[in-house]
Structure formats: structure tokens, C-alpha cells
Amino acid sequence: MAAKSQPSAPKSRSPGGITDDRVASQGQWGRAWEVDWYSLASVIFLLVCAPFIVYYFIMTCDQYSCALTGPVLDIATGRTGLSDIWAKTPPLTKKAAQLYASWVAFQVLLYMVLPDFCHKFLPGYVGGVQEGAVTPAGIVNKYEVNGLQAWLLTHLLWLANAHVLSWFSPTIIFDNWIPLLWCANVLGYAVSTFAMVKGYFFPTNARDCKFTGNFFYNYMMGIEFNPRIGKWFDFKLFFNGRPGIVAWTLINLSFAAKQRELHGHVTNSMVLVNVLQAIYVLDFFWNEAWYLKTIDICHDHFGWYLGWGDCVWLPYLYTLQGLYLVYHPVQLSTPHAVGILLLGLAGYYVFRVANHQKDLFRRTDGRCLIWGRKPKAIEVSYTSADGQRHHSKLLASGFWGVARHFNYTGDLLGSLAYCLACGGGHLLPYFYIVYMAVLLTHRCLRDEHRCASKYGRDWARYTAAVPYRLIPGVF
């Protein structure tokens, strides 16, 4: 599955063509140096509209039983007004603020204080201190990889509370869902603003900062590549992985508990959503060290796009299926449920195997077997901002010979399975597959624009060898 993609980032014009590889790689490795009118318009649209999109989806479930057209029709016909809808919206509460502050503090504690021990007894798991990819300035950061440990400890505590301790109700997240939304927004905007101020006045590494001269673009897309506090608190790793993704499965469990409380049982569709999304979350934490080499860490700077997106967009819109099923419990027929389960598992298999093939190829420098054969590779080179020439290889075998982003194809299959589990009664749970299709298609184009600028003519040779992006013969 895609590593927690947030609202689709805007395209940016390449400041240099692919003829000057050094200039192009410096300009496009990370994000753009310059902002055209389309990028600026996209940035302003997302900054203004994305928070309202989240509010609209959550509000329609709370007030209109998840009917997306309900508020629009009521306002258009004069049955209600915006002020009436807002008046019915639960406000920020002291309880929600305390709950959210405790949650974030607990995740910071797990991230900073407890070194990873899972890698010492789980065969095949890579945790502890790991190195990230080389930054545009030629720096290699070290990370404390302990996300799986944080997820396990958090969920063990949740289960202990549900069955033994009874400190709080398992429905606590659902019961405070909208007040917690305001808390998440406060944190999202606070960390995004702090990251921008930090980038201007006390960056972790000034050579990895980028300034476009446009306030809105700098705020959204970020200035610093790897903002940190101290040696180990890395903003990108923490907010990309914790607290949003650790919370994902807890949110689904709270929704399942609320469905049981309201309807007396948990439907097989709710079980499917919980299981399939838990597989994705566990996969993310099991492969957290691999995640250090993905686009989020290797190319995106840290701004509102990641800061607010990880605090608000991810936990609130990626869990819409479970929220919908609280209001509209769906009991699927056995063949339907089995079909959805197989689709979700097939999507996960393609996603995981494709990423494994790429990781194996990278770790062995191509000295491996993929689908029983020696892999095909395209030799490429690029220049980092420090003037150093680097050589690399692009895999053109296995799933990576079928399409250039076939891992995204698997991600889309899994996303479709989540939505199909909710039946066909409403449009709301299908937002996720529509959003992911748009986002991953755009992400393909954005990534390939960057690669064309970074690798120059070598990238053209690669696209000739692997002509399709997502679907062979189609796109």
C-alpha cells in the first residue's frame, strides 16, 4: 500500500531541463525551486479546502447518517442553513483535549525513550538504529526504528483495558470523534507552523533547505528536508508513522465496539475492514526500515502537506469505511465476503512482493533472482547537491518489468476491497478508492517528473524498457 499518502501535492515546473543533469537533479530532487501559477493555485486550494473536506465527511456521518448529498440538499431547499449545521457540530471539549494530549505524549514517549527490542527476537524484522537514504546535500541520517514496538505496546494496553483494566470505554474514540478532530487540527497546524519557522531561523541542516520565495508553497510543501529536535526526534518519521498510523487500527477497533454497542453484534463487513486495514498497518511497521527509502522520506520536505496531513487527513479520511459501518451495518453474504477478502489479500500480495523485489534488488546490488531469473536493470547516474556523482540501477524485472509502479496497482486493489466491504448503499465509503486512484496516478507523474530531471537520458532508456506506469496496455 502507498505509504500514507495525504492530499495530492501540486505539480511543479522543472527549473532545468534534463540536459544539465546536475542542475536538474538539484532542482527536482526533493521539491521544486520555483513555483508556477498552477502550483500556487493548487496549494491555495488545498490549504483552504482540505480542512473543510474532512469536516464535511465527518459532519455528514454525524448529522446525515453518511449521506453526502444531505447537507447540500437541505441548504439548497432552505430546510437548514450553515449556521444550523455548525450549531449541531460538537465543540472542542476538555475531555477530548486531555485524551489527545495524552495520546500524543504517549507516542512521543514510546518513540524517544524505549529503544527497539523487537528486532532481537523477531526473525526477519529490521529495527533499531538504521540509516536513511542520502539527502540532496549528501547527508545520511540515522533513525531509531521502533514503530512495530510502539504499535504492539499500544494495542496490548488497549486490549488489557478492554478486558481487564476498564479504565475507559472501547468506544471512547468514536464518542469523542469530532472534538478529537479539532485537537488533531490544532496539532497539525502547530507542527506545520513550527516546522516553517524552524526552517527559516534554526534548520537542522541548512544545505537541505529549499526556499521558493512563495510563502504559501513554502508553508505547504515545507522548507526543511529532515527537521529534527536533538539527535533522534525526526519530524518526518514520527508524524508519518506515529501518531496517525498507530491510531488507525485503534480507531477501527473503537468503531467495531460502537457497532456492537448500538446493534448488538459486529458485522462481517466491519471485521473485513478491520482485518484488511490492520494487515496494511502491520506491514508498514514491519517494514519501517524499508520505508526510510520511500518517496515520503527521500523526496518530500516537511511542511503542512505532511504535518497536517498525517495528523488530520490520514486518521479521519482513511477510516471512513469503519465509521460508515457504525451507522450502516452491512452483513455480507459468504461468497461476497470471501471475494472481498481474496481481492484485498491479492492486492496486498502484489504490493508487498513488488516492494520486496525492489528492496532485494537494492540490497544485493542486483545479485539476486527475481521470478527465478537474474534481474534486468538499467544503469543510471545522478549528481547530488554536493557535486558528487552517484551511480545506481533501476529494476526492470518481476513486477517492475510489468509496470513502473505496479506496487501502486496492488495498493489500489486493496483500497477497492475496503470500499466494497461497505456494500452499495452510499457513496461516502467509496471516496477512498477515488481519492487513491487520483493521488497515486498523480504520484506516478510527480515521481517520474522528478526521475526524468534526476536521471536525464538514463530515465528515457528505462521508460523505453518498461513502457507502462500502472496497468499494462492501458496506462
TrEMBL record:
The keyword Lipid metabolism applies. Residues 1-23 are annotated as: Disordered. It is found in: Endoplasmic reticulum membrane. The keyword Transport does not apply. It catalyses: cholesterol + NADP(+) = 7-dehydrocholesterol + NADPH + H(+); 7-dehydrodesmosterol + NADPH + H(+) = desmosterol + NADP(+); 5,6beta-epoxy-5beta-cholestan-3beta-ol + H2O = 5alpha-cholestane-3beta,5,6beta-triol; 5,6alpha-epoxy-5alpha-cholestan-3beta-ol + H2O = 5alpha-cholestane-3beta,5,6beta-triol. Pfam families: ERG4_ERG24 (PF01222). Keywords: Cholesterol biosynthesis, Cholesterol metabolism, Endoplasmic reticulum, Lipid biosynthesis, Lipid metabolism, Membrane, NADP, Oxidoreductase, Steroid biosynthesis, Steroid metabolism, Sterol biosynthesis, Sterol metabolism, Transmembrane, Transmembrane helix. Pathway: Steroid biosynthesis; cholesterol biosynthesis. It is an enzyme of class 1 (oxidoreductase). Its EC number is 1.3.1.21. GO terms for cellular component: endoplasmic reticulum membrane; nuclear outer membrane. It is a multi-pass membrane protein. The chain crosses the membrane at residues 37-58, 148-168, 180-201, 306-327, 334-351, 415-440. GO terms for biological process: brassinosteroid biosynthetic process; cholesterol biosynthetic process via lathosterol; positive regulation of ferroptosis. GO terms for molecular function: 7-dehydrocholesterol reductase activity; cholesterol-5,6-oxide hydrolase activity. Catalyzes the last step of the cholesterol synthesis pathway, which transforms cholesta-5,7-dien-3beta-ol (7-dehydrocholesterol,7-DHC) into cholesterol by reducing the C7-C8 double bond of its sterol core. Can also metabolize cholesta-5,7,24-trien-3beta-ol (7-dehydrodemosterol, 7-DHD) to desmosterol, which is then metabolized by the Delta(24)-sterol reductase (DHCR24) to cholesterol. Oxidoreductase that catalyzes the last step of the cholesterol synthesis pathway, which transforms cholesta-5,7-dien-3beta-ol (7-dehydrocholesterol,7-DHC) into cholesterol by reducing the C7-C8 double bond of its sterol core. Can also metabolize cholesta-5,7,24-trien-3beta-ol (7-dehydrodemosterol, 7-DHD) to desmosterol, which is then metabolized by the Delta(24)-sterol reductase (DHCR24) to cholesterol. Belongs to the ERG4/ERG24 family. Interacts with DHCR24; this interaction regulates DHCR7 activity. Interacts with TMEM147. This is 7-dehydrocholesterol reductase.
